[in-house]
């Protein structure tokens, strides 16, 4: 199932990149107009920024006593978070959950993983707060004070204080922290109860105990805490340095304005309604650079290239590195278990690809305008030249239905899928403009044929037994059929029939005794 999820993620990433192809094309053309050396420096600084952020995450978990994370695993985690936070609602909270899950898979208990994740976020907000203060001073010096930066800085102070207070309360008032998590558990259980879910009974107590324990660890290890926050601050400084280098690449050398623009961009990312502040951050940077004396073309170029280096490149890297995260790595199993897992993975992957074909063609039948921005991808799997009108919707629905059968690895679903896709491919070859669709379809058919051995489940339904033929034995007394089965299992020898008869005779005696007859005497 995880491989199927990975395919869906890569498809979404590809669609997202194609949907923003105009922005990416503008980024590429604008880069060619800048000075080479400052742009190379900006890219190097960007790589250093993510490297130091990975070091900060590693230091955060080491500060709470968990030292099993590596620099490479944290680098994969950082780039993956860029991708995850782009698509998930409540991206910041989702990112924290992903950090917790990653540490938990590496062996940290849930409380320690949560504490390490919270400390990493404390470092992040502390670093952005420091940059915001620097930016506010730069704005004050340059006479371009922006109240959005002030409001954002206050908001970050509140968030930073809230996260930090959990550790302070855990150290000085552990009872109050236990009461807080107990109340939080009740609230979360009421919300999750709407979906028939709930937290473990001891979640609040264990989480509070872990925070108390880690608060004591941090208090006894102030150096480790300072190191984690220090590396986060260095990461933010590299982030700011990237924008300054991009500004120099386009001839804008007003450093205070660039620092102020970076502070505004940092706050805009947190307050923006769009994923990762796409569109909002660019507008904020361009507006402040223009206020500082830069031309509109220069301001637009700086904003576009900075966001391209700091977001679009890491986004693409994150989409590729996500497969290397521990979430997609399975545990080591025996040979038989691995074979079964490969079969299950093949079923899910096949169902995902066939299901995507069905969904795309269903959308083409009902809401084709929704897929217009992604025409470059859709044209490779568009069956509208073969199926027209309602038949396209029927074909899409049939593919979705077959994908459900492929999940269970039904042989009949595999046969029907191969036949249908082969027929579609042959029809697509009749049109010159749709040869690519035929080739893609045949590639999928070929892959399904090579994996045919995994689809070996018969399409069988449970045998229906009429209610009047079901024998319900008396409470505590087994039926004759049950005794026969038990006898065969216990004594599968040549005298099985005699043993079965003795057991049945004994059961009959028990039934007679339950109706008032006396028990037979034991034989010597």
Order of helices and strands: HHHHHHHHHHHHHHHHHHHH
Q: What is the global morphology?
A: globular
What is the count of DSSP helices, taking H or I runs of 4+ residues? 20
Helix content: over 70%
- The whole-angstrom Rg is 32 Å
* Share of β-strand residues: under 5%
Give the structural class: mainly alpha
Distance linking N and C termini: 63 Å
Largest β sheet strand count, sense and barrel closure? none
Mean pLDDT: 74
**Unreliable segments (pLDDT under 50, ≥5 consecutive)?**
480-501, 512-524
Care to count the β-strands?
A: 0
Features:
single chain; 524 residues; 20 helices
Briefly, what is this?
This protein is mostly helical and 524 residues long. Helices cover 74% and strands 0% of the residues. The chain starts with a helix and ends in a 10-residue tail after the last helix.
Write up this protein.
- By secondary structure, the chain is an all-alpha fold.
- Helix content is 74%, strand content 0%.
- It has 20 helices and no strands.
- Helix 16 runs antiparallel to helix 17.
- It is globular.
